[in-house]
Amino acid sequence: MAITTPWVPGPDANHEQPVKVMASRFELRSILHVPGFLVQAMRILLQARRSPGAVGATLKAAPLRRTFWTLSAWTSDEALSTFARSQPHRGIIGAYRTRMAGSTFEFWTADGPAGWDEAHTRLKDV
Predict the structure, then answer these.
(1) Where residue 91 sits, what CATH number does that domain have?
(2) Of 30, 34, 71, 90, which one is least surrounded by beta carbons within 10 A?
(3) What are the pLDDT digits (tens) for 29-45?
(4) Which InterPro entries match (predicted)?
């Protein structure tokens, strides 16, 4: 069973140009890493929702499968890169790198924020 947070608009939710969409999937090595990762993923989600250039973001978690997905839209590649290099995102990702069984990222340009169906198709989730 997956838990999905609602799509929450970011500071640039009214951006009227095409957006940069990013979808990701993270698989943890152990169920023991899930509680801490969930807390940190929520911190990153809150950061994304406040970051300049963020159109919006959402998170999906399947704790028993040790799998998490993110979906976000940005005004530009630069806005997304700035977010990824900023704290707490940068530190959290660095701390969890060795606890990952795998991760996948997909990026594309769209007329507006994408939905989970498109994200899962692009991530090749079955």
Answers:
(1) 3.30.70.100
(2) 30
(3) 999 999 999 999 999 99
(4) Dimeric_a/b-barrel (IPR011008)
